[in-house]
Specification:
Layout lengths: L1 E3 L2 E3 L11 H5 L2 E9 L2 E2 L2 H14 L10 H14 L6 E9 L12 E9 L9 E10 L13 H12 L4 E6 L4 E4 L3 E6 L2 E4 L10 H11 L5 E4 L4 H4 L4 E6 L3 E5 L1 E2 L2 E2 L3 H12 L1 H6 L2
Parallel strand pairs: 7-8, 7-15, 11-12
Antiparallel strand pairs: 1-2, 1-6, 3-4, 3-5, 5-6, 8-9, 10-11, 10-13, 13-14, 15-16
């Protein structure tokens, strides 16, 4: 069952017009969330990121589009699909059809789909640079829009080269993120991640982890430009997103990493009051 504007319908009953703006122009946003332990993890953060993104894209936010309303809509969708724990949620927001580049309206549709989630983290996690195309280091790149052609191509590249993931760079040749999440570099007790100004997605786990590390006496967290040359000189690399949480990288090109320090950071994050408060 899908949730389309609050109506619960089967997939074959979803009628999207041929000139749907998400299809025609990528005029849409999406959020990927995880439901676990009876709650949507970090839902408030996802909600406010979504609203901020809608404002940036000049989408009209309906009065009923409250935190409680969307949370209830998601939970109803999960219940109607007979799912109970460990669920992937995808919410799409797209401007209603009509117009060419200039839309006829800024009002929106929303679509919620849910599926059972299995998280299988591989023991070996090798990544490399994707250099065919680059991300532009502007604010629009920080939004989760449906215009993800670079991510699609980097995913294909990873599969063709037996990689688990790819690192994306911007027009300044700085590291930005990986295909499906944010990236962190560890050198000694210093942890670096690319700044938002370089074009990386404003990841929710990225944000929460930075908050956790800022309170830690064991690590120094920096949001700073990262050159690809720094990657092979680092002690460890890891990536984050809302589904996998924290994933250690075991190999980048010829450099193999010890994941012990990443496991320590993962434990610190999972034991922090920040994440515990969101799982009750």
């Amino acid at each position: 069952m899908l949730n389309f504007n609050g109506d619960f319908i089967t997939e074959n009953k979803l009628n999207l017009l041929y000139n749907n703006r998400a299809f025609s122009y990528g005029d849409a946003l999406f959020e990927t969330l995880k439901f676990q332990g009876g709650s949507i993890q970090f839902f408030e953060d996802h909600y406010f990121r979504l609203l901020a993104s809608m404002r940036m894209l000049r989408m009209e936010i309906p009065n009923y589009f409250t935190l409680d309303y969307l949370e209830n809509q998601i939970k109803k969708t999960i219940e109607l699909n007979n799912l109970s724990d460990l669920v992937r949620i995808k919410m799409q927001i797209f401007r209603k059809y009509g117009g060419l580049y200039l839309p006829k309206t800024n009002t929106i549709n929303f679509l919620i789909e849910v599926s059972s989630l299995e998280i299988n983290k591989p023991n070996k996690y090798e990544i490399d640079l994707f250099k065919d195309y680059s991300i532009y280091s502007g604010l629009l790149s920080t939004l989760k829009t449906t215009n993800r052609v670079i991510n699609v191509l980097s995913s294909i590249y990873a599969k063709e080269n037996n990689l688990e993931n790819c690192i994306l760079i911007n027009e300044k040749k700085n590291v930005v993120e990986v295909t499906n999440g944010n990236i962190f570099l560890i050198k000694g007790n210093e942890i670096k991640t690319p700044p938002i100004s370089d074009g990386c997605i404003k990841g929710i786990i990225r944000k929460k982890l930075i908050e956790t590390l800022q309170k830690s006496a064991d690590f120094v967290i920096l949001e700073a430009e990262i050159s690809p040359f720094e990657l092979q000189k680092s002690d460890a690399l890891f990536i984050t997103n809302s589904i996998i949480g924290i994933q250690a990288v075991t190999k980048y090109r010829k450099k193999e990493f010890d994941i012990t320090i990443v496991e320590k950071i993962k434990t610190l994050f999972e034991d922090s009051s920040i994440i515990n408060q969101n799982l009750v």
